[in-house]
Design brief:
heterodimer; A: 463 residues; mainly alpha; 19 helices; 0% strand; B: 337 residues; alpha/beta; Rossmann fold; five-stranded parallel sheet; two-stranded parallel ribbon; 11 strands; 12% strand
Amino acid sequence: MLFPTIQFAIFFPVVLTISWALMPHPRAWKPFMLLASYVFYAAAGWTFCFLLAGVTLGNQAAALLLHRTEDERRRRVIVGVAVALNLLVLAVFKYYSFFVQQWADVFHHVGLGAPLPLLTIALPVGVSFYTFQAISYVVDVKRRHVEPASLIDFAVYLSFFPHLVAGPIVRAREFLPQLTSPRDPDRVAVSSGLSLIALGIIKKVVIADFLATAVVDPVFAVPQAYKAPDVLLAAYGYAAQIYCDFSGYTDMAIGLALLLGFILPQNFRSPYRATGFRDFWRRWHMTLSRFIRDDLFIPLGGSRGGTLLTYRNLMITMVLVGLWHGAAWPFVLWGAFHGVGLCVEHAIGGRFKLPGWLRWLVTFHLIVLGWILFRATSLANFWLFLTRLTVFGPATLWTAPVLLAIAVVVGFQLPPPRLLERLQGRIERLRPLVVACGLAVVIVVAGATVSSQGVPPFIYFRF
Amino acid sequence: MAEPRDDSLMNRFDDFGLRRFKARDAVVSVLLVAALLVLFAGHSVLKAGDEMNPGIGRAIVVAVGHPSSWIAGQLPLASAAHTTTAFLNPEPALSGPGFAAVTRGAQASTVTPAAFPPATIGARAPPKVALHTLLVTGDSMSEPLDSDLAGDLIPKGVHVVQDPHIGTGISTTFIVNWAQLSAYQVKRYHPDAIVVFIGANDGFPMSGPSGQQVSCCDAQWAAIYANRVRQMANTYRQDGAAHVYWLTLPTPRDAARARISRVVNAAIEVGVQPWAAQVSVIDTVPIFTPGGVYRDAMKIDGVETIVRESDGIHLNAAGSALLAQTVLAAVRRDFTD
């Protein structure tokens, strides 16, 4: 079930009303929210609910075992097994086809047949997100950052529908405390929630989907049909599209959670304002960045073991970040590209003092270059796209709405954050009924821009 | 218990003093939004329900949609909102009788020479002509086939129009009426050749000759479907000025869908018969699912290769690339390089 759809517009008011009615009674509220979240998930495929339930039970069992054991060696084994099982779920559902196909190609070249059956396995929506959250929970219990939750609390945490299918990736220690006592009905950020939902709809439906249809999809599908100006526009267009698509989803998720009384972590902070790769990852998909930092980069040794080990750790981390996005070589190379960027930045350190605007300009264009790799359907498609950047000719897709959309997306991230926060704060302080009227107008206007084929799925649903 | 730092700004709403409203405000606001949407766009609910696949979700949306649509119809707000925002609609305005004419007037037509491909009667093939514009259309099955064909033909100077309509079908006119759309495509693009790959969403009940609803997938349903295919094929062939390549569906994994696809394929074969010389059926079943048996992978150039998407319906990039070669071979039989 997508957020900006009629189905969800029916589902959410019902859930919201019942949720607040049951909030003073946690014994009723928790099963209700669990049921609502599973109904939401079942809309994408009811069979996937069994996988979600299995991941919940398995990780809860691991957390309880950890809690009962003081022996550090045993605790390490338990957490190792739990993490491995979570990764196995990802491996089977997300990477099986990819790796088996690669093996089949290799085996063919040495005259052997495929080693394993070549099968396609349906990817359960959100599996990358909730397995990471499950890992985060078990690791947090192991590190004694949290006590094991009750099964129902953990199940609600993992399946809570606003963040279930595409994040933000919420740490157990951020969400579980919010479940221990009923949410305060007198302290709800209603206007913030409504305005974030409106902002998310504008980003996704009005900007991201428009850019996809008008410039990005046609050019990336057949780069050879376009000349340099259009190809360049598609590259900038995709940078704007993916930001609006993903951050739009996140805005809606955070807004919906706020209306239910819950706070989810921030996931974006003007990423195209970044003046370096490190800075970018502190602003883009922040909840993935910190998960990768805390649960992969630092356990690998982080930057504690000298320069070469730091580079190794950065590369491993970023290649895995790329692979997390999808089982395809362009994603792996995209991760490696960012890894190299981080290493170079680390090597340069503070030796070159470039002006801020130049650092921004270079970073932005390197990020856009990375996005071309990320969006390419194959390495051949990526290369073709790059080569078309050298073929000069007329600009056929440079329309005022496309240019305006890209300029707005990038331009809004450049002013000092305090200015934007002040503007946002003014809207969020308005009376909820005023913001609700604004949200209704946004939905009606955004709905008019949707084609007969409906709202396309969010890009990150594939991950 | 260690106290990690707050690197996710969990206190941001408290810091700015934004959590100052009541839960009641949240519920009332959301209900207000819902009420306003019913008043200004109430018809959309029923439309969305009609477009959904059968099931409990659709039943709920349709149940909500009927009163919403009725309320919106009683007040001028919805039509005012529609008029005000109409300029934002990205869709072309389709018009024409749609499929209704076919179902009402099913009569035996006279056989014409167009029913006989030259090879079947030992005649000489007509001379090849240059291909200027190729239209690739259909539902999601036509992607990424359209890009593969475009990738090959655009460098050769062919104008390739990619016009997929995701989620649509010939048996349903909720999202788009293919009778109207095909007429619009021909009028707008004037293609010399048309590749049609559609049917993955089909299986909806259709109106029979006397107006009754005919459910999938008996002979009566197949006949109605074939008539619709026939009307579209006739539109696309443009009185013989264009050549149509109509692709059948490779057997899907799901047994229920496989049953529908078998009937759809049979209806395609029958539907295009009057113009077999101008409408070629490219049968994908022997290529991807010989004997109508689903498979994920097959040998391509001696290498076992996955050719289907994980949904068990669509072709993946490798499968689509293979199919594109088959289509291009067919196109080259009729057009010069």
